[in-house]
Design a protein that fits this description.
By secondary structure, the protein is mainly β. It is 0% helix and 56% strand. It has one domain (3-351). Strands 6, 9, 14, 15, 20, 21, 26, 27, 30, 34, 38 and 39 form a twelve-stranded parallel beta sheet that branches. Strands 1, 2, 3, 5, 8, 13, 19, 25, 29, 33 and 37 form an eleven-stranded mixed beta sheet that branches. Strands 4, 7, 12, 17, 18, 23, 24, 28, 32 and 36 form a ten-stranded parallel beta sheet that branches. The chain starts with a strand and ends in a 7-residue tail after the last strand.
Length: 358
């Protein structure tokens, strides 16, 4: 099926006899049946031009959710390319609102790709390329994020009685959620983030167990090159994995050339550039964890930089217990603050914070 929605073309394929066949008349979001092999392709048509607008509900999302649940033994591949890119002339405010039923509705350029439940023995691959990028088109262009995101949780599933059991996951983001100016004006625009992110959690779930294999790669993404950036109780990137526990499984995370900012003035209050890479509320047992962060979570300033009660990088792994597990963490040229101007009056202030937390 090929449809156009919010300037995106969506195609849904089912694999039969070793060949993916395009399916007609499919309505998104979809439920993936058990034992099927599915390919979903989403391609953007153009860039959305914004003069001065406020988006405060998921109805304004440029790419809504694609999948509500995945059945046992299914194989799903999702490819999202050149979607939800925005050019701002004056101001775009992304916020939230309360629905009539009391639930919260948040604006985003890309909504959660998958919500609901994921069955046993599922293989899932998600590739997002050249998407959710923003150009601040003029000297006074601004992006305000207040309790919202550019990209919401990519996978947001129930954390109750729905463990990820023998789950194989590959997620890769390349050149996504970047904010910059036109090439001929590299010092324009203002970013304000309050209780929000450029990229929310990659995987928000309950228990990960039974030989599950989680691989997450972020490359050239969530970078902000502007005149001024102010972060309060927010981040450029939230936790990559937010789960209850990990048992008898493996996790590999690679972040490269991402989650950095370059600006005249940088202010971080009770926030971070990169939040916890992994937030595991209970325990990690009998598992292998590899986290590699390269040339990421750096701040380059030409006038002033202030960190108050915050960090460039929060904890790499935050958990209550690690038992019989192999943990390997590599940081290279990351979590650095560097002065790049030629103004003798520049200032750097660090109060009750760190460049890199535990």
């Amino acid at each position: 099926m090929t449809t156009t929605l919010n300037n995106n073309i969506k195609e849904y394929f089912i694999k039969n006899n070793c060949k993916y066949e395009l399916q007609p008349d499919v309505t998104f979001p979809v439920t993936i049946p058990a034992n099927q092999d599915i390919l979903i392709k989403v391609a953007g048509n153009d860039t959305t031009l914004v003069d001065e607008e406020r988006w405060s509900s998921h109805e304004k999302t440029l790419l809504p959710s694609l999948i509500t649940s995945i059945g046992n033994n299914a194989k799903v591949k999702i490819e999202i390319t050149q979607c939800s890119n925005v050019t701002i002339n004056k101001r775009l405010s992304l916020g939230s609102s309360i629905n009539q039923n009391g639930s919260k509705s948040q604006a985003a350029l890309i909504d959660s790709v998958i919500t609901g439940t994921i069955g046993r023995n599922v293989t899932l691959k998600i590739l997002i390329v050249d998407s959710a990028n923003i150009i601040l088109n003029a000297q006074d262009s601004s992006l305000i994020i207040n309790d919202a995101d550019l990209i919401k949780e990519i996978i947001n599933i129930d954390d109750g009685d729905n463990p990820l059991d023998n789950f194989k996951l590959d997620v890769e983001l390349i050149n996504c959620a970047n904010i910059h100016c036109p090439e001929d004006n590299k010092e324009c625009g203002v970013i304000s983030i309050n209780d929000g992110q450029l990229i929310d959690e990659i995987l928000d779930c309950g228990e990960i167990k039974n030989k599950s294999n989680i691989n997450i790669k972020i490359k050239d993404s969530a970078n902000a090159h502007v005149n001024s950036i102010n972060i309060v109780e927010g981040e450029l990137v939230d936790e990559l994995i937010d789960c209850l526990s990990i048992a008898d499984s493996s996790v590999e995370i690679k972040i490269s050339s991402s989650v950095s900012t370059s600006a005249n003035t940088i202010s971080i209050t009770e926030g971070e550039l990169l939040d916890e890479t992994m937030d595991v509320k209970n325990h990690i047992r009998n598992s292998k964890i590899d986290a590699t962060i390269t040339n990421s979570a750096n701040a380059f300033y030409s006038a002033t930089m202030t960190i108050t009660g915050g960090e460039l990088i929060d904890e790499i792994i935050d958990t209550n217990e690690i038992t019989n597990s192999k943990i390997e963490i590599k940081l290279t040229t990351s979590g650095c603050a560097s002065y790049i101007g030629n103004n003798a009056g520049h200032t750097f202030t660090l109060t009750n914070g760190e460049l890199i937390d535990e």
